[in-house]
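Complex record, two chains
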Amino acid sequence: KNQVEQSPQSLIILEGKNCTLQCNYTVSPFSNLRWYKQDTGRGPVSLTIMTFSENTKSNGRYTATLDADTKQSSLHITASQLSDSASYICVVEGGFKTIFGAGTRLFVKA
Amino acid sequence: DAGVIQSPRHEVTEMGQEVTLRCKPISGHDYLFWYRQTMMRGLELLIYFNNNVPIDDSGMPEDRFSAKMPNASFSTLKIQPSEPRDSAVYFCASSLGPRTDTQYFGPGTRLTVL
């Protein structure tokens, strides 16, 4: 069954700290993996897109990694800010399928 | 650029009524996507178009849902008749290219069916 599982479900960190969100998938065939940030009440915003051959991709303080062999991805946030409080959604595409993870809800506290 | 524009932003209707959601993609984008988001099911891809032609509608939940793209700058998602379980936020997104391109989402339409 094609699935995308994200962990943790929610996370609370202090401003300035780093954190890592996980995404494991069983989607096959695999085309690409996306990370989105979604603020409450707004549409998702693309952070990174990685294809099979890419291991790492950065977007400012956001760094995504991909291990296509183990079918795992992570999103690392460096020096968190209050504005990082949001849901982070992992999406895997392959063949004609687009499978969404349930998201990780991140709370950054002052 | 104004980004992806969706209207209305909020829609409240009664069960059985027809609902039409509208989307204007970013100018020059060849791909347009319709998504639905609920607390229970998360985000789901409903349908996407390439150059105004529907490519994959396998995510459309049932025949009550239909989508059209009469030209490059306008698309509609219609629900007829609407049911309470259709209550969700519906997003439209557009991109220059297909699967490996960045998709830009609109602000969404929050639909409530009573």
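Note: The mean pLDDT of chain B is 95.
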